[in-house]
Every structure is written in structure tokens, then in C-alpha cells.
Amino acid sequence: MRESELNPFLQGNFAPWRLEGTADDLQVSGEIPLELNGTFYRNGPNPAYEPIGRYHWFDGDGMIHAITLGDGRASYRNRWVRSAGMLEERKAGKALYKGLLEMSVTEAPVFKNTGNTNIVSHAGKLLALMEAALPTQLRHCTLETLGEFDFEGKLTTAMTAHPKIDPESGELLFFASSPVPPYLVYHVANRDGELVRSEPIDLEWPSMIHDFAITKDYVVFILCPLVFSFEALATTGSAFVWEPQRGTRLGVMPRNGGNGDVRWFETDACYIFHPMNAYSEGRHVVLDVARFPRLLLMARDQAPGSGQDFIDDAPKLHRFRLDLRDGNVKSEPQDDRRCEFPRIDERLLGRKHRFGYVASGGSETARRDVPELTAVTKYDLETGKPTVREFGAGNGVGEPLFVPRYGQAEEDDGYVLVLAYDRAKNSSDFYILDARNIAAQPIAVVHIPNRVPYGFHGNWVTAS
Ligand SMILES: [Fe+2]
């Protein structure tokens, strides 16, 4: 059988959407607020061809879905990230590159820079990101691929898909993680987009470090016991091994410090793809995350896809409180709901946030083999109170983005934007929710003319 008939990450709304298109004046239920003037960009894996061998959700070619709002109207455009590898495959009319589950020690790894994970705008550049390679620059609005971007030749490593833009300085803080030394390099680009700093950071073991956190004063690196191992690749075929006895380490480095200043805090084994945010509070660094109790990233013999059980080993909202005076870590579960894709009001990135927005859920009947989350939850971290909006079984949602109503609006005074699949219609809707009451009637629902496959991350870019 073909992989697409076996693998749940190639089926339902995980299946790729292979048309590119543009649609103006989308049908809208309700009214789009006039203050919403900009574009919601969303990236995700969308394989252009039937995969060679086994498929991992992280493998697919990047596709950007862009919803532009202005004057109360909405338009849609989707385009592939046209990587050099994908263009070769287009010529051949078939897949040429193997994925993560087909890595082998006997063949040199040849990766396609799919640019499939996130899309950010900094210093006038729109960058599609995937963590094993350079950013891919796209043109705003048209989504035309301009090619790989290496900061004028200064970036000699890959770039995480989760850079942070400091809301005050406008700096772009990021890192590169690699299975071969240097395992971690910290980078800073100034507000004009010039790479001004690259600092190798020593790690105890090579891992997959997907994201990190910043505060006004510190960066926080997250080293989980998902260990890269050539030996394991040779013997089991899986390049990453879960070794919980190592525990998880959180490395706190002053933003103006270097490798020698990193202080590592130890906590129980867990995996963290995504922090919600971090901030400094007195002698503490507070770090909120979506915490997996363990991660089977490539247990490829267990099940098609990844082998992870997304119910038993579901991520949940968790707070770490790191005491910079005595080195202790308080590890505090925040809720029992499954959650991923945590976001905050980006104006508070690295500063104390009260509210967070996550994809969450869902029902007892939710699937175990894929991370399909069918609710949006807003957390009030001061009162501990969650507010939940359910979309119904099979109607998975993406990462919720908060957009303030206007520049100086208070935290939570704005909109939560989220894409949701409608299984009955087999198409997707773009919800504009009142952040202060996400469970109420939506302010507007924009009906996308097609299905937007489940994907990863995106950002809102205000029209200039
Ligand atoms: Fe991510």
C-alpha cells in the first residue's frame, strides 16, 4: 500500500492540499472589525508528492496560507515554499528526498529545506523557517519564494523556527540546534536585521531543541532527554532516543552574557516543544510551557506516523519557577487539559503575561495517533481560570493568535484569530473571536474556499 493510505498524517485534514490559489472577498458571517488590517500567515507541511518510504509530519513541503483582512473584507492566498529541493522534485514529477523516518547511517543525510514550520516578519523580511536549515525569504502578500536568506553571509548555522522578536528593542533572538558540534549556537540580529552576535553554547548532549524563551534580562534554553544518537540510528533506525534518566535542563543565560554564564537548572524528564512565555520576577525566572511527559519522536516501528500517544502522553500547561538565588526549580502543573501551540500577547514577550491562548481539547473520543485538538482555551494565569471554546469532534483547530484591538490596548483587549477545520463541510473557517470572551458568539467567521490542512505556526503582520 502507498504511504498515504497507511499514515494518519496523510489523511483527513492532515492530508496535503495540492492546489495553489487566490480568492478575494471571501464569504463572512458576522462583521470583520475595521481595526483588523493586516495578514494572518500560517505555515505547515504539505507534501507535493507521495513520500518515498515512511512519512513524518515534519517532512512535508512548506505551504503558506495567508488571510488578509482590511476594510472589513477578507482575501485568501496559498503558495508552496518553493525550495530548491521541491523544484528538483517538480522537474522529476515525483519525490526525490527521503524523510526523517528513512534516515540511515550508511547514506549521508540529504535534507530538503522545506521551510515548513513557521513564518515571521522581521526588518521588512518575511521568512519561512524550519529548524534544520537557513530561513527561506518570501515576498510579503504574493508569497513568492525569493530563496534562502543567510543574513548577508553571516549566518553559518541553521535557524530555529522559533525566533523571538523583543517587543522593546526590536531585536531578533534565535538559536541553531544541531546533532553535531556545536550543538547549540545563540544568535542575535539587531532591529535592522543585521546579525550582530553568534555565541556557541556548550550542551551535555545533542538533542532536538525546538524552541526557547526570553525574558527582558535572560534567555532560557531547554535541553530535554531526547538524545540524538548515531548508534541508535544504526541499530534501531531512530536517530533520537528518549533517555528520561538524564532529566530535563533549563539553561538561563543573561542576555548580555555568554556560554560561561549559562546556569543550568534541573527538573524531571519531559519534552517541551513550545514555551508560552517567560519573565523575570524578583529572583525568579517564570517559564510557562506546554509540557509533554515524554516524547516518542521517531518510534517508527510502533505505528505509522511517530508512535507518540497523544492522549496518554499529551502535553499540558505547566509552570516552572527557577530560583536564581538557590538554584531550585518549582515545577507546577497548571491544568489537566491537553494543550499545544501556546501563545500570548506578543507585546508582552519576555514580560509578565496574565493571559495565554492555546489549542486544546478535546473530547474523550479524540484520536490517540494524531495531535488533533478541537478547542481553544484561554488561561487567566492570575485567577487560574480557563475559558474554553469547543469546536466539536473532528473539527481540529490551529495555533490561536492574539491581536490587540489597537496599539496601546490592554492585554487581552483584542481578538483571537484561529483556523478551524469543519469536518462536515470538509473546508476550513477562520474565526475572529473576542479575546475577552472566546466562548461567546464569534465576532466574525471567514469561510475559506478550501480545506486548510492542519499545520504548525504563523503570525499576524499588521499592514504598514
Ligand atoms: Fe514549533
What does this structure look like?
With 464 residues, the protein is mainly beta. It has a single domain, classed as Methylamine Dehydrogenase, Chain H, CATH 2.130.10. The chain contains three helices and 32 strands. The protein has a five-stranded antiparallel β-sheet, with no helix packed on it. It has a five-stranded antiparallel β-sheet with strand order 2-31-30-29-28, with no helix packed on it. Bound molecules: fe (ii) ion. Fe (ii) ion (FE2) is lined by residues 117, 161-162, 210-211, 273-274, 456-457. Residues 117, 161-162, 210-211, 273-274, 456-457 line the site of fe (ii) ion.
What secondary-structure arrangement, pairings included, does this model have?
Blueprint: H1 3-6, E1 21-23, E2 28-30, E3 38-45, E4 62-70, E5 73-80, H2 84-92, E6 118-122, E7 125-129, E8 136-138, E9 145-148, E10 164-165, E11 172-177, E12 184-189, E13 195-201, E14 213-214, E15 218-223, E16 226-228, H3 230-235, E17 240-242, E18 248-254, E19 263-267, E20 271-281, E21 284-292, E22 316-323, E23 329-333, E24 339-343, E25 355-360, E26 375-380, E27 385-390, E28 401-404, E29 414-422, E30 427-434, E31 444-447, E32 458-462
Antiparallel strand pairs: 1-5, 2-31, 3-4, 3-32, 4-5, 6-7, 7-8, 8-9, 10-11, 11-12, 12-13, 14-15, 15-18, 16-17, 18-19, 20-21, 21-22, 22-23, 24-25, 25-26, 26-27, 28-29, 29-30, 30-31
Bound molecules: fe (ii) ion.
Fe (ii) ion binds at residues 117, 161-162, 210-211, 273-274, 456-457.
